[in-house]
Amino acid sequence: MEKIEVEGCALAYEVTGGGPRTVALLNGIAMSVSHWKPISDRLSAAGFRVLAHDMRGQLLSGKPGGYSLEGHARDLAALMDRLGIPKLHVLGTSYGAEVGLAFARDFPDRVESLILVDGVSETDALLEATVESWLRAARADPGLFYRTIIPWNYSSGYIAANREALDKREALIRSLPPEYFEAFAGLCEAFLKIDLTKDLARIPCPTLVVVAEKDILKHRGFAEILVRGIKGARLSVIPGAGHAVVVEKPDAVADAALGFWGA
Predict the structure, then answer these.
(1) What is the pLDDT of residues 20-40, one digit of tens each?
(2) Could you read off the pLDDT of 48-80 as tens digits, one per residue?
């Protein structure tokens, strides 16, 4: 893992593979680079160079506050400049999908294609209430925070099959420093300002919208808004998975991406 300072913030990043085409993997709000490994390995094996980074506010990067989707997009552009990457494919999940939308809107000449996994361009009352509950739990108690996000992120089948592993992960979450949870709350505040539906027609690149069948947080209704708004966008549904589909079914996500890219 390496770090580059961008506008006063140290961004942790990793580059794997060595193909002629580059893919940027953009984290969900509570993710870190390591969560992408099964997908990153598949993409590297298929001949892609893969760039993954923790956004400012996330686990391994700096936490200066003042987060925004547009700011994360600028960070990605700066990271590309430092690494000599003129253009790339973008694959983002949840918060990362929304950053991907902002990036494709603000830096259209730097995007080959866009894959949005369980992302949204707007909120509704239920999604807002859920994210607000995460925000408050993060500031109140690490264990409560962790237990609050589990049912929204994973399918029933995944929870049933992984109870022991999920229980063990609570101790790791509790060991994180207070600044992690304050930064998470700040990222939630950035998300709650989302207002991208009006900009979807400005997304010029080929786009695949992926939604997990059992996602109760950012469901198919939100995915269909993206497909209607982005010219030529295609929809792919991954059966049997919840919101954290990149964790539950990484091979299905990789298959969808490689099929879209014709790789």
Answers:
(1) 999 999 999 999 999 999 999
(2) 999 999 999 999 999 999 999 999 999 999 999
Q: What is the pLDDT of residues 163-178, one digit of tens each?
A: 999 999 999 999 999 9
Query: Are the CB atoms for 225 and 10 separated by under 8 Å?
Result: no
Where are the chain's structural domains?
A: 2-122+195-261
What are the structure tokens assigned to 228, written together?
Answer: 């209607």
Residue 58 tokens, joined: 């996330």
Q: Enumerate long-range contacts of 144-147, CB under 8 Å, 24 or more apart.
A: 145/173, 145/181, 145/184, 146/170, 146/173, 146/174
d(CA 257, CA 245): 13
263: pLDDT confidence band, cut at 50, 70 and 90? confident
Fold of the 2-122+195-261 domain:
Rossmann fold (3.40.50)
Query: Which stretches within the chain are classed as H helix?
Result: 37-45, 69-83, 95-106, 125-140, 142-153, 156-161, 163-174, 178-191, 220-229, 245-248, 250-261
Q: What are the Cα distances from residue 124, in Å, to 46, 117, 222?
A: 38, 18, 9
Cα gap 49→119, rounded to integer Å: 24
Phi, psi of 70 (to 5 degrees): -65, -40
Rounding to the nearest 10 degrees, give the CA dihedral for residues 75, 81, 82, 87: 100
Tokens read off for 103:
């990036």
